[in-house]
Amino acid sequence: MATDWPPVQPLCVAVHALRKGRSSPSTWPMDLPCVYREPATARAIARIAESHARLLGRPLLAEHADPVAALWAAAPVVVAHGTEPDPLFFFANRAGLARFGMSAQAFLGMPSRLSAEAPLRDERQALLDRVCRDGFIADYAGVRIAADGTRFRIEQATVWNLVDPDGSVHGQAAAFSRWTEL
């Protein structure tokens, strides 16, 4: 998935602000990838917060926050993938990109299975199956791998289905703020 990351980012943000009738792009983080402001992607990102509130009974973001900007700037790592046969990441916030050591251009569209080493992918699939069955889990721990090969164990992660109000599943998201370098 192509993005304007980072060379023309300020111009892209300004153009989107004008299209949306906002008086100033200064309310948006200047490092927000342009692809996140595309309408379909912005709706999918908003679904991350909406699904969290619906399934877990508590908000992920402050009330009335712009979900795209708020998720991008959130302190915990937040990532999400779609429902493709080999699910592809469509979102990682600033913290997520830093934790995985990747740019948005490299991370977005990457099969989510590649965030785990090959021998640990069965464990990851068992997690995803459990989330599909139960809607969410709030106690996940597992080993992930960054772009530079660094391994880290995420702890106390919440993983939930991305579900719209009519019950259609659009993918899964995860949030975590604790990990141990391995």
Q: Helix and strand layout, with pairings?
A:
Elements: H1 9-19, H2 39-56, H3 67-73, E1 77-81, E2 89-92, H4 94-100, H5 104-107, H6 121-134, E3 136-145, E4 151-163, E5 169-176, E6 178-181
Antiparallel strand pairs: 1-2, 1-5, 3-4, 4-5, 4-6
Number of strands: 6
Largest sheet: 6 strands, antiparallel
The CATH superfamily bears the name PAS domain
**Percent range for helical residues?**
25-40%
Order of helices and strands: HHHEEHHHEEEE
Proportion of β residues? 15-25%
Query: What count of domains describes the coordinates?
Result: 1
Structural summary, described in words:
- The protein is α+β, with helices and mostly antiparallel strands and 182 residues long.
- The protein has a single domain, classed as PAS domain (Beta-Lactamase, 2-Layer Sandwich).
- It contains six helices and six strands, in the order αααββαααββββ.
- Strands 1, 2, 3, 4, 5 and 6 form a six-stranded antiparallel beta sheet that branches.
- Strand 4 (151-163) and strand 5 form a beta hairpin.
- The longest helix is centred in the N-terminal third of the chain and has 18 residues, at 39-56.
- It is globular.
